[in-house]
Amino acid sequence: MPAQQPWIVPIPGTRRMSRLRENLGATTVDLSADERADLAALAARVVWQAIGTARRT
To answer: What pTM value is reported for the model?
Structure first.
């Protein structure tokens, strides 16, 4: 996600240190332009209804 905008950062929102480490590891994953485009296309299909609630279209 940081590749899309410099102000986008992962927010783990976790209680366990092991999960925090796991989530922080996601910041080291390198995605190709095609992979980012695929993720963006999937994210565009999500219709947000309320904070924290989404449904797929």
So the answer is: 0.49
